[in-house]
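Run log // design_07
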């Protein structure tokens, strides 16, 4: 007998507001491109971002509350089906590690079902990579085992935040272990910190309007179109949300504003007077943001022992007269900058499409 559950969530590489019908040995995804087959309790949706697994019997019809796009989703149960939908990171496994200065560093391929540490894998022996010269950087940790380096894991270590938004992570043989599972690479890659590396991402939005000033709606969904300020990263060439690392002891609110100013308004090239004028005009705008997401990022730089986490805030220019009056100019780590329509068709860096999906949901805009 077929059993049905609705998964409410959004994403680019995985299921979007689809209805899943499971029966013995097979699965059909309503509205998806084609039917897929579920084996051993797993439903793999291209490209292996999401899977379903059996969980203990529950009395409630809702196994898990929705947290955010790309993370956990509500599962409404009909009959006796008890399933949980969970994100499986994808961009930080099964490929060549980025930013290796010409050195070819290939990850050990990790299939979706082997990502969780709870799944035994005796032959899991991934290569090790930590970028040369990291220890000489002021923003980076020493190597684990170096004299005098005694990090306080899962705590605020002086001004360095070693706590994870996801909860407490394990330490094995002195090394922090990625909470989201295997990545196919040990070490810390090109990341400065062992364990969580904290960033902040400001999503600055406005409504897309025509020449008459009317908000444009998508003809298919009938919902209004949002635009966001996007930057093209110099390191990978991918389009992304402007953002960056939270400095030790820095408030996230300060990071959000600083990164937007540097990458989208090129504040680093301004005089002190110009910068002060711009900041005074935008201070109020950046003090009224909406937190969209706080947690793990599926970043290609992640490893088994170091990973990216972020806090995402949406700053919405309802009239388009606040940020809209400032000319966008790429700076710092950005090669280009522009206003971009928000839609599920965007191919963006790391988990940035997930964040935009949440923003669109919040504003009841087209996705």
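design_07 sequence
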């Amino acid at each position: 007998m077929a059993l049905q559950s609705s998964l409410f969530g959004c994403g680019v590489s995985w299921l979007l507001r689809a209805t899943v019908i499971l029966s013995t040995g097979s699965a059909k995804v309503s509205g998806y491109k084609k039917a897929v087959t579920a084996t051993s309790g797993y439903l793999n949706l291209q490209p292996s971002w999401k899977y379903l697994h059996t969980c203990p019997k529950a009395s409630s019809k809702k196994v898990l509350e929705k947290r955010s796009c790309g993370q956990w989703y509500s599962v409404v149960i009909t009959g006796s089906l008890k399933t949980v939908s969970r994100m499986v990171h994808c961009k930080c496994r099964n490929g060549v590690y980025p930013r290796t200065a010409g050195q070819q560093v290939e990850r050990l391929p990790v299939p979706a079902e082997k990502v969780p540490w709870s799944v035994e894998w005796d032959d899991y022996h991934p290569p090790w990579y930590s970028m040369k010269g990291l220890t000489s950087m002021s923003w980076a940790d020493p190597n684990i085992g170096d004299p005098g380096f005694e990090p306080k894991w899962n705590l605020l270590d002086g001004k360095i935040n070693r706590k994870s938004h996801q909860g407490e992570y394990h330490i094995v043989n002195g090394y922090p272990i990625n909470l989201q599972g295997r990545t196919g690479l040990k070490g810390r890659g090109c990341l400065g910190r062992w364990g969580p590396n904290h960033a902040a991402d400001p999503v600055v939005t406005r409504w897309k309007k025509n020449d008459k000033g009317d908000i444009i709606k998508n003809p298919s969904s009938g919902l209004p179109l949002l635009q966001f300020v996007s930057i093209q990263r110099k390191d990978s060439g991918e389009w992304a949300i402007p953002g960056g690392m939270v400095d030790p002891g820095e408030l996230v609110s300060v990071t959000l504003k600083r990164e937007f100013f540097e990458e989208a308004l090129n504040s680093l090239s301004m005089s002190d007077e110009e910068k002060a004028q711009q900041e005074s005009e935008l201070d109020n705008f950046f003090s009224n943001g909406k937190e969209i997401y706080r947690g793990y990022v599926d970043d290609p730089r992640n490893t088994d022992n170091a990973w990216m986490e972020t806090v995402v805030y949406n700053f919405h220019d309802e009239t388009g007269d606040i940020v809209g009056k400032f000319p966008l100019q790429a700076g710092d780590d950005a090669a280009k900058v522009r206003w971009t329509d928000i839609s599920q068709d965007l191919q963006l860096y790391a988990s940035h499409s997930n964040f935009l999906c949440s923003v669109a949901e919040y504003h009841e805009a087209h996705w």
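Helices lie at 252-264, 272-282, 352-362.
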